[in-house]
Amino acid sequence: MRRSPADTAESAKKLTRRTLFLGGSQLVFMGALGLRMRYMQVDQAEEFRLLADENRLKIHLLPPARGLIYDRSGTVIAENEQTFRIVIRKEDASQLDMVLAELETLIGLTQDDQDRVRKELKNAGPSAPVTILDRLTWEAFSTVAANAPALPGVSPEVGLSRDYPLKDDFAHLIGYVGPVSSYDLSRMDHIDPLMRIPKFPIGKSGVEKMMEDTLRGNAGTVRVEQNVHGRIIRELERKEGIAGNNLQLTLDHQLQNFVQARLAGESASAVIMDVETGDILAAGSTPAFDPNLFVRGISIINYNALLENIYRPLPSKSVQGAYPPGSTFKMVTALAALEAGVVTPDETVRCMGHTEVGGRRFHCWKRAGHGNINLTGSLRHSCDVYYYEMAQRAGIENIAAMGRRLGLGEEYDLPLPGMSSGLMPDKQWKRDNRGADWVIGDSLNASIGQGFVLTTPMQLAVMTSRLATGREIVPRLIKSIDGVEQPIKSGGPLNINENMLRSVRQGMYEVSNSNRGTAYSSRIVTDGMRLAGKTGTSQTRNAVVNNKNVPWEERDHALFVAFAPHDAPKYAVSVVIEHGGGGSTAAAPVARDLMLFALHGAVPPLASYPQSQRGTIKTLLDALPLRTDGDNATKRSNA
Amino acid sequence: MSYLEHNLKTVPTGLSKILFVNWALVVLLTAVACIGFIMLYSNAGGAFNPWAAPQMKRFGVGLGLMLMIGMVPIWFWRNMAGVGYVLSLVLLLVVEFFGDVGMGAQRWIDLGFMRLQPSELMKITLVMLLAGYYDWLDIKKVSHPLWVAIPVFLILLPTALVLKQPDLGTSLLLVFGGAIVMFAAGVSWWYFGAIAAMGGTLVTFVFSSRGTPWQLLKDYQYRRIDTFLDPSSDPLGAGYHITQSKIALGSGGWTGRGFMQGTQSRLNFLPEKHTDFIFTTLAEEFGFLGGISLLMLYAGIVIFCLISAMNNKDRFGALVTIGIAATFFLFFAVNMSMVMGLAPVVGVPLPMVSYGGSAMLVLMVAFGIVQSAHIHRPRTKS
């Protein structure tokens, strides 16, 4: 096909024109790109560079070492144990099946664990570590490390984990730590950034919970450079955290161990305190549990077993259990009456085995009656009718006021959660809470520690200390924080006439040392260690039936309070054995053993017991599952 | 003037053709490819593998291919234009129908040594076919509606197939590349004006219809447009790529953070750091100076092509050169606009720099044809 020269020349010119136009447009566009580049990279450079730094630099928190907890002699109660665990991240888990199978052969990873890992990985973020196995033994850990090439994606990590070497002994007092939950977070006013670490352990009960802020310490930080997946490329700057403060408690681990062992088998609790300082030396509660189970994640089966046990192992009975004090309350009524001037120590009341008030008959525990009886006699024999008379003479307001002065119905400032304040009822209380007027029968019941009156073993120990010293003894649990001694709050006199106190103490002395005292069989025969105590048997039912013929949960509570030595008091003890039967038979022998251990600082010698009992006592003491020092205390040097 | 009308004796023959190769173009292409190697090396954290070494091999192969194709007379390529177009179309249909079922919706065919994307091939063969068409067509008929409809159909047929893959970026390149060849061939301004006006009206309608009962796009499609217009509105979702890309680019400054010092691209904040977003690595590590240098190299390639085209009295040679230059221009213009946040993320690589064998080899083949047109351009005496 031939074309005319004019045509071709014309088209060539047109092509050139259009090419120039195209080229021009393209250059203009490129110029625009260049300007845009300049604008972003030069004019906005600062801004973008800032954004870039934020992008890649992240601050990670380093959990601090939690403060340790010691007993009064410096033995570790709560410590941090180095633990080994292996984790895997989703982004590295491409060969999960192979890895899990390999771990099964290497360290016996169970099928349950494998399923759990698979499930957790499904829901995890790409770089969030999922724990395959926690608390590996050193052998298993090194096996995993040695076989690393066959386990792609598995990273071994070393961490700190709470450990309670004395196991059950301090379960109720120290409590335990557990992973922070959203419920925990919702209840905090100020949320420590550490709480954002997944499964960060915080105190869940006991001292661990109440002293959380002191024990936790401050987070360290590490500035890391990371990529978009959160994978750390390198560490830029590390600032170690500040470890939590160490706590020293007033507790004595040996005495506590003895208390737990002595109470074992019963649903019981006991408190022993220093009558001068208010230092709590031991506060037992049985049955107990191993707090380490909770730290490691308790199984549903174990947890349900704890929940369903009718002996209720979980609550700390020494401060959370509120019981009718029974006859251990009679010192309060006696002092109230003495102080009100409605009776003198020597004045006698005639006990006929019962008394009629307001058309109702109130019985003494001894149906035959005690005859004419004075103050010390009424304590020694625990005569109820005497106190019915005192209640009518002194009135409930005086009794309640005396009870409060002696520390009943009061919540103490102790770092223990869920403490019961007990109940010291009066007319106002009944109107407010029961919508009924106080009747005289209420006073009579209250006078012997029944009816509405409720006390905790801790309160009974405080009451006993105050009776022993006549001073306002306040219990103390924290001896020092980070080496700084905490103040002893026990203070001034109760302003109760010393002669009146002396009469009451005399009565208590006779309870244990008069051969007609209710706790005479639980006496201490060593001079200078003699007990002054009071038995209590508080009814949990109305019908008068022999304890042996009713189910456990309907039997009476057995109580005993005492201080010793009676003439120069050092320690006060309170023992409550739930549904234990009589105070003199069930509680008093236990209290005597605890007191003797406290006084001797060791398992008491048989010489302190009455000759006739030594055989039985020896059998009993020998059978106690006591921990010998070195058992657990030295266990932490294996890592 | 059609090629055969020229005196062939003025055209170099045999090995002497080597002397007439557009060496400036070769140097510029090599320079751009070297920038690519450096960036791929840096992106791999200072290693030739996995990207830089294969890319260098491919460039070597491509360079040889380009020179070989350049040695082949341009009329051969003109005669092959139709065959190439049909072949590309068939391959597109193959991946469309067999790729779906057999290979899980892939866009490429495995040739063993490389993966061929038919859509890449189509970019070149379409330009060649259109250049051939306008070489053949009587100049007077160029703006006749019937003779305009034919190339429009030739453009839209493969575009529809590519759009269905779906590959919006490549289909846009096909439309614009074809349109530029048509424009250069002398199709009346009015057509382009009318298309632009219609497009503008459509866009206006699309946006004004939003929220009304008769809105033209689905809600999610509007949201995508929103994200493009303001990436910060969804920084962790759809706007993520654009935002991260801008941060990397902007943080480069005048001279950049230095070779291998880029934090953003190094740390995997950037998606596709070795392919579509490789420019951000360059801009971050070598700053504005690095970016503008690459842009100037690209401009040089386009300018040398256009000069070659304007000096080429062979209509096919000139048009195919303009078309290939335009396609090349569209590649980097769209890619750079994308990483700078001026265009939506459509998946267009940075030519000669992004990692990828198919795109690079096809481009080298295209520049081979440009070389062929250059070497075999008719020379008039005096």
What does this structure look like?
Chain B: It is a multi-pass membrane protein. Chain B: It comes from Pacificibacter marinus. Chain B: Belongs to the SEDS family. MrdB/RodA subfamily. Chain B: The chain crosses the membrane at residues 20-39, 59-77, 83-101, 145-163, 172-192, 286-309, 316-340, 352-370. Chain B: It is an enzyme of class 2 (transferase). With 639 residues, chain A is an alpha+beta fold. Chain A has a domain at 83-165: Alpha-Beta Complex (Penicillin-binding protein 2a (Domain 2)). Chain A has 23 helices and 21 strands. In chain A, strands 2, 3, 4, 5, 10, 17 and 18 form a seven-stranded mixed sheet that branches. In chain A, a hairpin with a 2-residue loop joins strand 17 and strand 18 (484-485). Chain B is mostly helical and 382 residues long. Chain B has one domain (3-375). Chain B is built from 14 helices and two strands; from the N terminus they run H-H-H-H-E-E-H-H-H-H-H-H-H-H-H-H. Chain B has helices spanning 17-20, 23-43, 52-71, 74-103, 118-136, 145-164, 168-185, 189-208, 219-229, 240-250, 263-266, 278-310, 315-339, 357-375; strands at residues 109-110, 115-116. The radius of gyration of chain B is 22 Å and the shape is globular. The relative contact order of chain B is 0.17.
